[in-house]
């Protein structure tokens, strides 16, 4: 099994942690996020320190600084994707255009991971407008 | 004269939907942008509504080429959360199918690249070899794609002695033709003219953008999850990381040929050492406790990441899927700059893109 180590960090610690990882030559495997049952944003930065994954998690912050200046597109694309899927924003990321979702879907603002499935089903086939 | 040339999302030079915008001065590409999302199916959303067995079936359909890689990764994540010990024979069978999948994926890419280069006879030879692999996959699993070989806790089907013999015979055939393909590709003038010095991704750019898999290894970045963070039973096999240093499309051709050799070696060893015993933990519904983990798998196109969060209930709390094309597609604008418009299709194809995987 691949070792998996989870750490909790604060919003303020994110940039120094990412800078240190980058300086140590550690790659960013992915950024993962979800909204828990209490409505808190959980954002995990999965750094691959082979053979382990070090998962640095921030809970309860729906606005975070972007680490795209440190990890370039390896961070920017996941950050843009997360912004399209759920109400979490990354400061400093260009949100002028959507990465995955059609620009018309949910008025170009809503996020499918937090939109109820029955509402999404109603919109299916209507080009993104509510039926 | 300056032009903006749109390619795609639906275009004869593209195998799957993506939109690229080329900013050119005459024939030379000065800059480029890539737009994705034409194939988005909301699979991560659906995974929060499905139980674990349904999700296993669904993630296998994220991609038609590396379907086994998705099911393999998702099952490993659940097994890690539930601390299940997969029987050795089941692990070996998983690896055999994974390497057969890599072989057919690499032959598929070689065929497409050769077609785009304009070498159609070699394209047909390449796909003839791929057919032999697809036939074996059908014999072992019942399907040419979406093999359904993974179950939570092991493999769904066993490999008989006769099937083992047939796989070995197929490998003998493939090994000979791969050696011939290697000789031709390394010496053919058409291949050299269309690929050498084209679509360069330097080691520095590769590390900066975070490319993975054959795309990274063709830029002299020696990363391979099977070696760097061994999973399943990969640490029991003797094989090499294939790395090449010309950083161009030619390098990406060479890498696939070298990786075919390594995959053949792994399958032979796995068939030779195939342990006796059970292939899975039985036909029952497993309870997955609350937990979270992330697993990495070396899919044919590179590192595939699955992060799964469970809450002890019957569905996933969250499944995040990060596929290799999501890491490799951002390298396309860098590779396109300074090249001619005629090479754009080949350069985009050289990352072996899977937009079905990426858009998921």
Strand segment count of chain A: 6
Mean pLDDT of chain B: 91
Greatest interface and its participating residue counts: A-B, 38 and 36 residues
Q: Separation of termini of chain A?
A: 47 Å
Tally of individual domains of chain A: 2
Output the CATH homologous superfamily of chain B: Cytochrome-c3 Hydrogenase, chain B
> What is the count of helical runs of chain A?
4
CATH architecture of chain B: Orthogonal Bundle
Helix content of chain B: 40-55%
Identify low-pLDDT runs of chain A: none
With helices defined by DSSP (H or I, 4 residues minimum), what is the helix count of chain B?
Answer: 15
Low-confidence stretches of chain B: none
Which geometry of chain B do the CA atoms define? globular
What is the C-level CATH assignment of the largest domain in chain A? Alpha Beta
CATH class of chain B: Mainly Alpha
Shape field of chain A: globular
By helix and strand content of chain A, what is the structural category? alpha/beta
Order of helices and strands of chain A: EHEEEEHHEH
Structural write-up:
The complex is a heterodimer of chains A (131) and B (360). Chain A is 28% helix and 28% strand. Chain A has helices at residues 11-23, 68-71, 73-85, 117-123; strands at 4-8, 27-35, 41-49, 52-59, 63-65, 89-91. In chain A, a hairpin with a 2-residue loop joins strand 3 and strand 4. Chain B is built from 15 helices and 8 strands. Chain B has helices at 43-47, 52-59, 67-81, 88-117, 120-141, 161-187, 189-195, 203-209, 213-217, 225-228, 249-272, 324-328, 332-336, 344-349, 355-359, and strands at 2-7, 19-25, 28-35, 150-151, 154-155, 291-299, 302-310, 316-322. Chain B has a 3-stranded antiparallel β-sheet. In chain B, strands 6-7-8 form a 3-stranded antiparallel β-sheet. Chain B is globular, with a radius of gyration of 20 Å.
């Amino acid at each position: 099994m691949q070792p998996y180590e989870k750490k909790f960090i604060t919003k303020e610690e994110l940039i120094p942690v990412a800078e240190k990882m980058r300086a140590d030559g550690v790659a960013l495997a992915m950024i993962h996020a979800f909204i828990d049952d209490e409505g808190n944003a959980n954002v995990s930065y999965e750094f691959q320190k082979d053979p382990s994954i070090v998962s640095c998690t921030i809970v309860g912050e729906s606005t975070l600084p972007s680490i795209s200046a440190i990890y370039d597109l390896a961070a920017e694309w996941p950050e843009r994707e997360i912004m399209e899927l759920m109400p979490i924003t990354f400061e400093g990321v260009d949100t002028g255009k959507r990465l995955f979702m059609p620009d018309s879907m949910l008025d170009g603002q809503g996020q499918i991971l937090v939109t109820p499935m029955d509402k999404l089903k109603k919109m299916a086939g209507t080009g993104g407008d509510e039926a | 004269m300056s032009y903006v040339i749109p390619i795609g999302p639906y275009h004869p030079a593209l195998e799957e939907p993506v939109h690229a915008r080329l900013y050119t001065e005459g024939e030379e590409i000065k800059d480029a942008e890539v737009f994705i999302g034409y194939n988005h199916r909301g699979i991560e959303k659906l995974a929060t509504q499905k139980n674990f067995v349904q999700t296993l079936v669904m993630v296998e359909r994220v991609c038609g080429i590396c379907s086994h890689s998705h099911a393999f990764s998702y099952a490993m994540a659940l097994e890690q959360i539930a601390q299940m010990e997969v029987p050795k024979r089941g692990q070996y069978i998983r690896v055999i199918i994974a390497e057969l999948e890599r072989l057919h994926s690499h032959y598929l890419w070689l065929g497409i690249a050769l077609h785009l280069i304009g070498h159609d006879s070699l394209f047909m030879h390449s796909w003839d070899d791929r057919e032999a692999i697809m036939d074996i996959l059908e014999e072992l699993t019942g399907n040419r794609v979406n093999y359904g070989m993974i179950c939570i806790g092991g493999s769904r089907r066993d490999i008989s002695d006769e099937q083992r013999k047939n796989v070995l015979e197929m490998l003998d055939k493939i090994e000979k033709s791969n050696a011939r393909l290697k000789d031709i590709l390394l010496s053919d003038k058409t291949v050299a003219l269309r690929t050498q010095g084209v679509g360069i991704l330097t080691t520095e750019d590769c590390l900066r953008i975070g490319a993975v898999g054959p795309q990274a290894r063709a830029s002299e970045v020696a990363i391979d999850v099977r070696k760097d963070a061994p999973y399943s039973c990969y640490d029991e096999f003797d094989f090499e990381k294939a790395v090449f240093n010309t950083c161009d499309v030619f390098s990406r051709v060479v890498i696939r040929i070298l990786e075919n050799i390594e995959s053949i070696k792994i399958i032979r060893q796995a068939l030779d050492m195939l342990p006796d015993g059970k292939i899975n933990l039985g036909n029952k519904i497993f309870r997955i406790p609350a937990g979270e983990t992330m697993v990495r798998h070396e899919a044919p196109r590179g590192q595939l990441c699955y992060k799964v969060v469970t809450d002890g209930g019957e569905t996933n709390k969250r499944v995040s899927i990060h596929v290799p094309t999501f890491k490799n597609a951002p390298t396309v604008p860098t590779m396109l700059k300074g090249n001619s418009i005629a090479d754009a299709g080949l350069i985009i194809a050289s990352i072996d893109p899977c937009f079905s995987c990426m858009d998921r």
